[in-house]
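User: Hi! I'm working on a homework problem where we have to compare a predicted structure to a textbook description. Could you give me the structure for the chain below?
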Amino acid sequence: QVQLVESGGGLVQTGGSLRLSCTASGSIFTANVLAWYRQAPGKQRELVASITRSGNIVYADSVKGRFAISRDITKNSVDLRMNSLKPEDTAVYYCNAGFSQFRPGDSWGQGTQVTVSS
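Assistant: Happy to help. Predicted structure tokens:
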């Protein structure tokens, strides 16, 4: 089992930037993939970006060119740098650990709210 703790959400204006961080503990070596998902009110949770231990990255089309995911193997952490934020990026963002870059694993963080004002 992997425990995940997120930080870094908040309120920002359109065009602004935020950085989310997630630190993993527990059986982290069983999770090849760390990822960020988000869920907006009334919508399904969706993949934002995922990264493998070897550095392979997948982004949702909606965030390509604006968001950057990075992983520090030594610190068991994953960051999400979000630039050029839009109101449609408003959601609760969740860190996830698993084995697929396209489907979530069983381990979730508690979530952190990102709100982009227009």
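For your comparison, note the following. The mean pLDDT is 94. The longest strand covers residues 18-26. Good luck with the assignment!
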